[in-house]
Write a structure and sequence with these properties.
Radius of gyration: 25 Å
Number of helices: 23
CATH class of the largest domain: Alpha Beta
Strand order of the largest sheet: 1-8-7-3-4-5-6-2
Largest sheet: 8 strands, mixed
Shape: globular
Number of strands: 16
Number of domains: 3
CATH architecture of the largest domain: Alpha-Beta Barrel
Structural class: alpha/beta
CATH topology of the largest domain: TIM Barrel
CATH superfamily of the largest domain: Phosphoenolpyruvate-binding domains
Strand content: 5-15%
Length: about 600
């Protein structure tokens, strides 16, 4: 029985995770189904355990088959690590042993697995950090694959898709996404997913427009309905009118023109027309993203998040494992610098098997550098690995969430002790490795002049700084409207940090989301930032605007903005100025 016919120009809004506009007819892949549950007789238990183990083996075989197909495709080969992650999840002790324990309590395999998945999912549900939270989608993808095998449901083939199709599904696993034919699939939309899920990363790599997090789109959309998806804004239009179709076709052509134009900027210098240079670097989690970052024009890594190494592990990674990861990325980025942030867990970030206890207010609790300074042995292992990597190329060490001089001095003492150990062991490292801190708390802003005497550089983490300064949880829908990057308090905080850094003769960078917004460039240039670090895909757009500004006019705009009283006034004034001065660069149909 089909769904009720959708009205013309029915709009759905989700998260745009891969830019571009896709126009076509929907191919619906609905994999939701009822999970059968029943109680076992004592005589059935061991056979059910074997059935579960057979499902694990079958899932591993399926994933290895996909790996073989992907290995022959250059544009996907670098993402094979995702399939390796899924293969590791199939061997995860908690997943396997917990499920088998429940089966031996006379639950059937499907029910036992479902219950285990729910328990594991709870570990992720309160994580605020997008990248870490979205790792639960890998667990879900593996879980759904196992449940389909147990239920005897064949994997839906993606090979019979018609030309110019928009895929609609409750969710797409990375393995599904890797098998999409770019010549036939012009976009996809899903009920689930987030901006940093592996599926979203793959969509961007494939150049397929994608909208995720639509929640209930598959209950509305039906096979063969015409649709438009805007992977930039997150809008989906079902059964578009002729007028809507023409408007989006115009946007599609404008977007594709801009994409071609942006390729011109990738290898150009990042400087204003009056020769003010600013380094544009990439935020990175995994080494496989290095080629894409380099292709987009990144000159080094301004923030290498190390938390990814601690995930899907039965134990925290050892020194050699960390050294292998750090040294590979340093070698591939050389001669440009790699800024490695030490472990930033706790609070809104959870990493399995580090024994982080529940806290009533985790955002203000044992997190980031506080955790490392308590778990000194774990901290030393990471510092040893980072220092060893500094012998391979240019490395900078960055400590997160510093709020006082005593913390940075404690970090430096431990770093010195580790350096002495390595020297005594005859291990090569750079004794002049630069150290820096993330400015994320109001306390760090207020004593920036004191902190600047202790380190070689600052990096402003605007995501946390804005939340702490304005006391706003941007993930809370009731107060998210108060999250204003251009709030007068934020501008003054940024100016205080930049002035303190430059007065002390050290560099200051920004690695939060503010750094990737082209509209904010006059503010950042006016403040005198030395470096911006962002998602590498944003670099060409930022560079395009940067090369059409001057430092002189940026300082003038910043001075004018500092005289205004509210974030809304500042935002409106900056918007008018940019559209007046650079109308070609801030056309709504293109940016």
């Amino acid at each position: 029985m089909g769904k009720t016919e959708v009205h013309q120009d029915t709009y759905l809004v989700g998260l745009g995770v891969s830019p571009g506009i896709g126009i076509g007819r929907v191919c619906l892949l609905n994999r939701l189904y009822h999970v059968a549950e029943w109680e076992l007789d004592e005589t059935e238990v061991e056979d059910e355990v074997l059935r579960f183990r057979d499902a694990l083996s079958a899932a591993a075989t399926q994933l290895r088959d996909v790996k073989r197909k992907v290995a022959s495709q250059p544009h996907l080969r670098e993402h094979i690590y995702i399939l390796d992650t899924h293969l590791l999840i199939l061997e995860d002790e908690m997943l396997v042993s917990n499920t088998e324990v429940l089966i031996r309590q006379k639950q059937n395999a499907e029910k036992a697995l479902n219950q285990t998945l729910k328990q594991l999912r709870l570990m992720f549900e309160n994580i605020e950090d997008d990248y870490l939270r979205e790792r639960s989608s890998d667990l879900d993808a593996v879980g759904q694959r196992l449940l389909r095998i147990l239920a005897g449901i064949s994997d839906t083939t993606l090979e019979q898709i018609k030309e110019k199709s928009l895929i609609a599904a409750h969710d797409l696993s990375p393995a599904d996404t890797m098998q999409l034919d770019r010549s036939k699939v012009v976009g996809f939309l899903t009920d689930r997913g987030g901006k940093t899920s592996h599926t979203a990363i793959l969509a961007r790599s494939l150049g397929i427009p994608a909208v995720v997090g639509l929640e209930s789109a598959t209950t509305v959309v039906d096979n063969d309905v015409s649709a438009i998806i805007d992977g930039t804004t997150g809008v989906v239009v079902l059964n578009p009118s002729e007028e809507t179709f023409r408007e989006y076709l115009k946007r599609k052509l404008a977007f594709e023109y801009l994409e071609k134009e942006l390729t011109r900027y990738r290898n150009l210098s990042a400087e204003t027309t009056d020769h003010y240079e600013i380094a544009l670097r990439a935020n990175l989690e995994i080494v496989s993203e290095v080629p894409a970052a380099q292709e987009d024009g990144a000159v080094g890594i301004g923030l290498y998040r190390t938390e990814f190494l601690y995930m899907n592990c039965s134990q925290p990674p050892g020194e050699d494992e960390q050294f292998a990861a750090y040294s590979e990325i340093v070698d591939r980025i050389s001669p440009h610098p790699v800024t490695i942030r030490t472990l930033d867990v706790g609070g809104d970030k959870f990493v399995q098997n580090l024994s982080l206890k529940h806290e009533d207010n985790p955002a203000l609790g044992l997190r980031a550098i506080r955790f490392s300074l308590r778990e000194v042995d774990l901290f030393k292992v990471q510092l040893r690995a980072i220092l060893r990597a500094s012998a391979v190329g240019q490395v900078r060490i960055m400590f997160p969430m510093i709020s006082g001089v005593s913390e940075i001095r404690a970090c430096k003492r431990i770093l010195r002790a580790v350096s002495v150990e390595l020297e005594q062991e005859g291990v090569l490292f750079d004794p002049q490795v630069k150290i820096g801190i993330m400015i994320e708390t109001p306390a760090a802003v207020m004593i920036a002049s004191l902190l600047a005497k202790e380190v070689d550089f600052f990096s402003i983490g605007t995501n946390d700084l804005i939340q702490y300064c304005l006391a706003v949880d941007r993930g809370n829908e009731h107060v998210s409207y108060l999250y204003e990057p251009l709030h007068p308090a934020i501008l003054r905080a940024l100016k205080q940090v930049c002035d303190a850094a430059h007065h002390a003769g050290i560099e200051v960078s920004m690695c939060g989301e503010m750094a990737s917004e082209p509209m904010y460039l006059p503010v950042l240039i006016g403040l005198g930032l030395d470096e911006l670090s962002m998602n590498h895909a944003c670099i060409p757009r930022v560079k395009r605007v940067l090369r059409n500004l001057t430092q002189v006019e940026s300082k003038e705009m910043l001075n004018a903005l500092m005289q205004l009283s509210t974030g809304k006034e500042i935002s409106a004034h900056l918007d008018r100025e940019m559209r007046t001065r650079l109308p070609d660069l801030f056309d709504d149909s293109v940016i």
